[in-house]
Structures are given as structure tokens and as C-alpha cells.
Design goal:
Elements: H1 2-28, E1 35-36, E2 47-50, E3 54-55, H2 62-76, E4 80-81, H3 84-93, H4 104-114, E5 118-131, E6 136-148, E7 154-163, H5 167-172, H6 179-192
Parallel strand pairs: 2-4, 2-5, 3-5
Antiparallel strand pairs: 1-7, 5-6, 6-7
Helix pairs in contact: 2-6
């Protein structure tokens, strides 16, 4: 009888914690909706060039790791993606020195030369294992933008994060997901908002 009462209290505490966490996320804006330009028909985007991603992390390869996962996820969802080496070669030929200052004319030229409907740019804000007092957990945060090559306009963008210690990791020290799993989850959720 005492064991049953204890189980019910634990269930109630877990449910209360989950509801409180969801409420905090909604209040602080942690659950973000993607931007989609009004009148943009993203379903007409059939072929994409994924540019190299900016990397704001201490892992020098984080941008390329996330770019590869994004390409794989787009292909898995039926989008035609230009081979990344072709994209890099064209950027070198065009003498594009910084993706932060890419011009609309550059976007349009990329569209014509690679025969793509849109280009995807992105950045990686977090990619690594964070350490708490007694636990460690993966954190991945990315930003993706889809630019229409005919106009150069941003037609879609999303900010997506995965990570942080789960309830079970925080309270019982159980092992959570790996960094690779967190990266895949982040990209899958982000691209899922596009398709």
C-alpha cells in the first residue's frame, strides 16, 4: 500500500514538473515558430543548394557536420540537393569571401549557375557537451534560412535547439542522448517545419 502511494506521488511530481517546464518554455518564447514569407509557396522549391554554414562554436567542424545532416535530411524528404563540392567550387569561382555579406545578385547568379530554386544558409550557435554540477548533456542550436534565388528574398527561416539535461538526467544521473543524436534530432525537427 505504501509503495503504491509512493509511486503515485512520483508520477504526480513528474507530471507537475513536465507541465511547469512546458509553461515556462511557452512564456519565455523558447518554443519558436518558423518564419514563412507571406505568399511564398515553399512547395514549389524542388532543388536547393546548401551553402557552408557559419560556425559560432568551439568545434571547428560543427558547421560542416550540421550541413551534412541537413543535406541528408532534405534528400530523405525528396528534395533535390546540389552536391556540396559543386556549391563550394562555385563560391570560390565567384570570389564570394563572406557568406554574411552575400549580395542578392550573388544569390541570383548561384540560382542560375546551379539551376536551383533556393539556397539554404545556416549557422551553428551551439554544438557540444555541456557539464552541470553532476551531469553532462548535449546541446545543439542551429539557424536555417531559405532564400529564393529569383528574388533573393528570405522565404523561410527557423531557429531550433535540442539539449539540456532531461528530468531523468538531472534527478537520477541517467545517461541521455548523445551529441550525434541531439544534432540529428535538431535538424530533423527544423527541416520538419519546412516540409
Amino acid at each position: 500500500m505504501m509503495a503504491e502511494i509512493y509511486k503515485n506521488k512520483v508520477r504526480h511530481a513528474c507530471l507537475s514538473a513536465a507541465i511547469a517546464a512546458l509553461g515556462i518554455m511557452l512564456l519565455c518564447g523558447c518554443v519558436q515558430k518558423p518564419f514563412t514569407r507571406e505568399n511564398a509557396d515553399i512547395t514549389q522549391v524542388k532543388r536547393i543548394a546548401v551553402l557552408p554554414f557559419e560556425n559560432f562554436t568551439s568545434d571547428p567542424y560543427a558547421g560542416e557536420k550540421i550541413r551534412r545532416i541537413v543535406i541528408t535530411e532534405l534528400l530523405a524528404r525528396g528534395t533535390d540537393v546540389v552536391e556540396p563540392g559543386e556549391v563550394t567550387r562555385l563560391l570560390i569561382d565567384m570570389e564570394v569571401r563572406s557568406l554574411r555579406s552575400i549580395k542578392i545578385t550573388d544569390i541570383q547568379e548561384i540560382g542560375k549557375k546551379l539551376n536551383v530554386d533556393a539556397i539554404m544558409t545556416g549557422s551553428v550557435e551551439a554544438f557540444g557537451i555541456s557539464r552541470g554540477i553532476s551531469v553532462s548533456y548535449p546541446e545543439v542550436t542551429i539557424n536555417l534560412m531559405l532564400l529564393e534565388t529569383s528574388s533573393g528574398n528570405i522565404i523561410w527561416s527557423v531557429h531550433q535547439s535540442t539539449g539540456g539535461p532531461s528530468f531523468w538526467t538531472r534527478h537520477f544521473g541517467s545517461e541521455g542522448i548523445s551529441l550525434s543524436e541531439a544534432a540529428n534530432e535538431t535538424v530533423t525537427e527544423a527541416i520538419g517545419k519546412l516540409h
